[in-house]
Each structure stands twice: as structure tokens, then as C-alpha cells.
Amino acid sequence: GVPEVPVRPVAERRVSRQIQVGPVAVGGGAPVSVQSMTTTRTSDIGATLQQIAELTASGCQIVRVACPTQDDADALATIARKSQIPVIADIHFQPKYVFAAIEAGCAAVRVNPGNIKQFDDKVKEIARAAKDHGTPIRIGVNAGSLDRRLLQKYGKATPEALVESALWEASLFEEHDFRDIKISVKHNDPVVMIEAYQQLAAQCDYPLHLGVTEAGPAFQGTIKSAVAFGALLSRGIGDTIRVSLSAPPAEEVKVGIQILESLNLRQRRLEIVSCPSCGRAQVDVYKLADEVTAGLEGMEVPLRVAVMGCVVNGPGEAREADLGVASGNGKGQIFVKGEVIKTVPESKIVETLIEEAMKIAEQMEQDGAAS
Ligand code: SF4
């Protein structure tokens, strides 16, 4: 019952083919999906399913699991069957695990062409097995594991090298009439990565999986990913995204969702419009914003809540939002849809905002259900 508020996305999307990762469509105008990867040993089925459940709860739509050993390959069937979201098997060195993953009912398989030895000989068989099972393949080119031939040709993992590698691998599948493919060309440098995806986007119509690889710890990785995805998505490029952080995977999902919301590629949910505070502030804005954010966490309706430190921009912003507070003189003026509904002492600001937010959310949900 969450009402759809029409929003204008940042850009027209690039026209791409559509593939189906389990129930999630990728490309061809489908909403940009958010994915992540488990950090558990895949062979530990219980722990992996537990983490997938947490990822699902945080809004993850597709999950990838690593498959470096036979024990991991053996676990895939149970994980794929019990996971609430489609599972992609991530395979680096062993073609036999690609077959195992397809047989296991994984929603897709990611292969890293630079790493699979004698990949050429196996392509035909992989294409046939994938086609028989309707399993799409992600060609996952990565700067760190670029084909040696291309590394020699270009000297390093340049955008051209990444793109040439990806398109060459795609052509190996195309020879066998297999086009159920999405592609990534990841690099840890957003500038190289942006250029690579732009070139790739111009040269094929496959759906693209965006990622800045080894983006780093949460703060740096968040910024690198936001900047790189923002640059690409604002040109319509990108069909599914994975934020890589050296942090728990649910954090990656939160960041990914926020990036899409910021670009109007997804309905915004709770949005706190809070001022940075300055010498004029008459209230501790940081604390107030944190408390309001914490109090409203998990709210699914698109609610703009303004938290402003003083009366300079305060009333204006608070009026523009669904709900807001402008503080001053130890009091907070509470606004709902542009009207001052009450003035409360500073100590009551947070609870009043939360109370009013709940009322508005309830109303929005009723309106949504009614329409
Ligand atoms: Fe400063 Fe007031 Fe603006 Fe906040 S709203 S930044 S306190 S002038």
C-alpha cells in the first residue's frame, strides 16, 4: 500500500537487452536492481542462508555467493532452493563448478574469463548447459584478473583493455548463439571504471552490472561507488548495481538503495532534510537529526522530514517538507504540510516529530491502499 509518487529519473535509460535473473528482470527498462555478495563460506549452508535472509531484509534483490571449492558447489542446490532472492554463483577458476551451478538451479552464473583456463574449449558446453536451463551468465571482467594477452597488449588494465576483454568473451558465447548475458568491467579507480562502462555501453546492448571493485572501507567505498554509479546512471548506463565495501554486506545494500533513491531511479523513502548547522543554530542539530533518523528508521513511505537549526532557513525548509521542525528560543515549531501545527519545548521535539510522522505515514498508506 505504499503510494507511488511520480518522480523524474535522472536520465533516460540506455536501451539494453533484458535478461531474467530468477524473478528479477535486468536491463530492457527494468528498474535498476541492487545486489550484494555473501561473506560466509558457501559450504556453510546455515550461515550463508542466514546472511541471505539478512540481506533480503535490508532490500537486497539478487545475491551472489562465491564457489571456490567442491564443497561450495555441493551447497549451491540447497542455497538456491531456500534463498528468498535469486542466487548467482561466482566462479573463478573451474569450469566444472559452472556446470554444477547451472545444474543446481542458480539464477545465474558469474564467470571471470581471465581466470578460467582453457575457457575457449569449454564455452560451447557452458553455452549449451546455460541455454538448456535458461541460466544467464555474467561476464565479470575485473582489472585484477585481466586476461594476460590483453594485459600485454595494453600494458595495464585500461578502459579499452577491460572492454576488449568483455566483448571478446561475449563473442565466444555469441558464436554459440548464446546472448543471455550481462557484463561488468570493474576497476578500483572510478575514473577508469566510468570510462570503461561508457565505452562498453556504446559498443553493445547487453545489460550492465555496475561495480567499483575493491572500493575500500565503508566511507571511501561509499563515496567511490556513489560518484562512479552517479556518473554512469546519470547518463542512463547501468542495469544492476553492487556496491563493494569492506563492511558487512547489508551495508552495501543500504548504500546501493540510497544511490538509486538519490537519482530518482527508485521511489525515495524517508528523507531527512537537515541543515549542516552553523553559528546561528539554537539547537544541537546533529543530535536532533540523528534522533529523528533513528526514531523513523524502517519507515517505508516517502516522507520528507526537515530538521532545521534556526529560524533563518528553518521555517522555509520545514514548510517545503511533509513534516518539519524549525527550532529557536528553546522551542520547536512543528510544521505539517506547510502549516505550523504546534510549538513544543525543545525536549519534546523528537517525540512530537515521530508521532506526527506516524500519523502521516498511516494516512499515506490508507490513501495508497484506497487508490
Ligand atoms: Fe545555520 Fe539556521 Fe541554516 Fe541551520 S538553518 S545552517 S542553523 S542558518
Automatic annotation (TrEMBL):
Positions contributing to [4Fe-4S] cluster binding: C275, C278, C310, E317
Limits of the IspG TIM-barrel domain: 16-256
IspG C-terminal domain residues: 271-357
Pfam families: GcpE (PF04551), GcpE_C (PF26540)
Cofactor info, note text: Binds 1 [4Fe-4S] cluster.
Functional pathway: Isoprenoid biosynthesis; isopentenyl diphosphate biosynthesis via DXP pathway; isopentenyl diphosphate from 1-deoxy-D-xylulose 5-phosphate: step 5/6
Reactions listed under catalytic activity: (2E)-4-hydroxy-3-methylbut-2-enyl diphosphate + oxidized [flavodoxin] + H2O + 2 H(+) = 2-C-methyl-D-erythritol 2,4-cyclic diphosphate + reduced [flavodoxin]
EC number assigned by the record: 1.17.7.3
Sequence similarity: Belongs to the IspG family.
UniProt function note: Converts 2C-methyl-D-erythritol 2,4-cyclodiphosphate (ME-2,4cPP) into 1-hydroxy-2-methyl-2-(E)-butenyl 4-diphosphate.
Designated name of the protein: 4-hydroxy-3-methylbut-2-en-1-yl diphosphate synthase (flavodoxin)
Organism for this UniProt entry: Streptomyces osmaniensis
Gene: ispG_1
